[in-house]
């Protein structure tokens, strides 16, 4: 069966990084494909017996984005395995990335009025409005605090996950960096004992055995994990009945290094029988940076 990955999202959120990862993974990739050519392109890939295709579509396709959700629905009805990945980032991150790259926003010329160029903030706000229907289509990845290596690792995990069932993701994060925009459920574990105040444990993470042993000695930690797991067990079947393809459970502590990482890992163990299952740590380097 033909597998199609559609990469879309806010300009500056990492679409080129994601598309290059897909290309390196054996996908036939097309960037900035106009929506009106999507049906023809998919048909031609079938004729060429291609199995994996990736397409990037965003605001560079003027006047056509409104019809994209209907095209996706139509192609899925025809038996195409169609996965949509929406990349996003907060405004401050986008502003910083544009400042560092010195690139112009793709909407700059289109929004120009009376010879006056719009501000970058105006371009970003307009783009968010234009892409709002697509953001609700499938899986959102907030790249605000991700390195390119982390994004590549997350994309690799995502495309390897089987779409036959809901993709359950457990994700740790740091509240000092803000709640990730891709979270469906958020749990705050900042009330738990903090290994940060132990000099020997401070440089370690929640994936290290000394930290795991230290946190594991507290009944409150175990109770918190069981309460979160119980909530998910109770409501996960209803999320699956809602024809949802992805559910991201975010666990946050102050620095995203000890407590949230440990709780995330423990939850993943408790749901190890769910497939596909992904584990992510926003404030930890990926275990294998390509």
Structure description:
The chain is an alpha/beta fold. It is 39% helix and 18% strand. The protein has nine helices and nine strands. The strands form two sheets. It has a five-stranded parallel sheet, with helices on both faces. The relative contact order is 0.14. The mean pLDDT is 89.
Give me the secondary-structure topology.
Elements: E1 3-9, H1 15-24, E2 28-31, H2 38-47, E3 52-56, H3 68-77, E4 81-88, H4 91-101, H5 120-135, E5 139-142, H6 148-160, E6 167-174, E7 185-188, H7 209-216, H8 219-241, E8 246-253, H9 259-270, E9 277-281
Parallel strand pairs: 1-3, 1-4, 2-3, 4-5, 6-8, 6-9, 7-8
Question: Could you give a quick summary of the protein structure above?
Answer:
This protein is α/β, with parallel strands linked by helices and 290 residues long. The chain contains nine helices and nine strands. The strands form two sheets. Strands 2-3-1-4-5 form a five-stranded parallel sheet, with helices on both faces.
């Amino acid at each position: 069966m033909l597998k199609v990955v559609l990469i879309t999202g806010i300009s500056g959120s990492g679409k080129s990084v994601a598309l290059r990862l897909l290309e390196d993974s054996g996908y036939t990739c097309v960037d900035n494909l106009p929506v009106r050519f999507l049906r023809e392109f998919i048909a031609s890939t079938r004729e060429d017996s291609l199995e994996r295709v990736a397409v990037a579509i965003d605001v560079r396709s003027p006047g056509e984005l409104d019809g994209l959700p209907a095209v996706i629905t139509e192609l899925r009805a025809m038996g195409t395995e169609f996965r949509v990945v929406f990349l996003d980032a907060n405004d401050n991150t986008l502003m910083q990335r544009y400042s560092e790259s010195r690139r112009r926003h793709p909407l700059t010329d289109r929004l120009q009025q009376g010879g006056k160029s719009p501000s970058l903030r105006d371009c970003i706000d307009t783009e968010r409005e234009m892409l709002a229907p697509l953001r609700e289509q499938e899986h959102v990845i907030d790249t605000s605090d991700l390195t390119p290596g982390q994004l590549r690792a997350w994309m690799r995990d995502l495309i390897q996950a089987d779409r036959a069932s809901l993709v359950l993701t457990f994700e740790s994060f740091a509240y000092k960096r803000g709640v990730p925009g891709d979270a469906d459920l958020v749990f705050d574990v900042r009330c738990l004992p903090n290994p940060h105040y132990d000099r020997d444990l401070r440089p370690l993470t929640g994936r290290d055995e000394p930290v795991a042993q230290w946190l594991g000695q507290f009944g409150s930690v175990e109770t918190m994990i069981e309460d979160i797991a119980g909530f998910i067990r109770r409501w996960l079947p209803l999320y699956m009945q809602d024809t949802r393809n992805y559910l991201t459970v975010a666990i946050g502590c102050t620095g995203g290094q000890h407590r949230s990482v440990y709780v995330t890992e423990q939850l993943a163990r408790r749901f190890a029988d769910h497939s596909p299952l992904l584990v992510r740590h926003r404030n930890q380097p990926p275990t294998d940076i390509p």
